[in-house]
Amino acid sequence: MNYLGIDYGRKRIGLSFGDNDLRIAVPITPIIVRSDADTLIQLQLVINQRKVNEIIIGYPYNLDGSVSDTAREVDRFISLLEARFSLPVHRIDEQLTSYQASSSNDIFLKKSQKSLKKRIEKRRSATLDSQSAALILQDFLDNFGCF
């Protein structure tokens, strides 16, 4: 069983990949959002290339457990995914995944020179999205994935 992890965003969609054999989620290249149609085409390529069987998407609950406004956007996106790919889509609570991904990169940034900081920041944003997707997928693999 192959899984695609998704961290949905308005500008970028972080992606990760994992399978039942290794049970490790790895970040892969994020998608730059231009339009729904373009995003679905890019996802189709990833799904076909990696032979994805199920999609795992981060779901943005509020800290009190209620559904956030952003969750409505994610619900709309999930509807697009289900209609286009006919694959199971699982929602995983994504609370604090961006923070966790950011914290792991802070050590690297502190060691970087200031002149490189702007270039690193640009790359860091895209990398964080896919690292967040990997944390979401790893949570699923650890707690809900098939054995």
Task: Kindly describe this structure.
52% of the residues lie in helices and 22% in strands. The longest helix has 30 residues, at 114-143. It has a 5-stranded mixed sheet, sandwiched between helices. The protein is globular and about 35 Å long. It has a single domain, classed as Nucleotidyltransferase, domain 5, CATH 3.30.420.140. With 147 residues, it is an alpha/beta fold.
Structural topology:
Layout lengths: L1 E6 L4 E8 L6 E7 L3 H15 L3 E6 L9 H17 L3 E5 L3 H15 L2 H30 L4
Parallel strand pairs: 1-4, 4-5
Antiparallel strand pairs: 1-2, 2-3
Helix pairs in contact: 3-4
Give the overall pLDDT as a whole number.
84
Radius of gyration: 15 Å
Q: How many distinct folded domains?
A: 1
Number of helices: 4
Give the SSE string.
Answer: EEEHEHEHH
Short description, anyone?
The chain contains 4 helices and 5 strands; from the N terminus they run βββαβαβαα. It is of the alpha/beta class.
List keywords for this structure.
147 residues; alpha/beta; Nucleotidyltransferase, domain 5; 5-stranded mixed beta sheet; 4 helices; globular
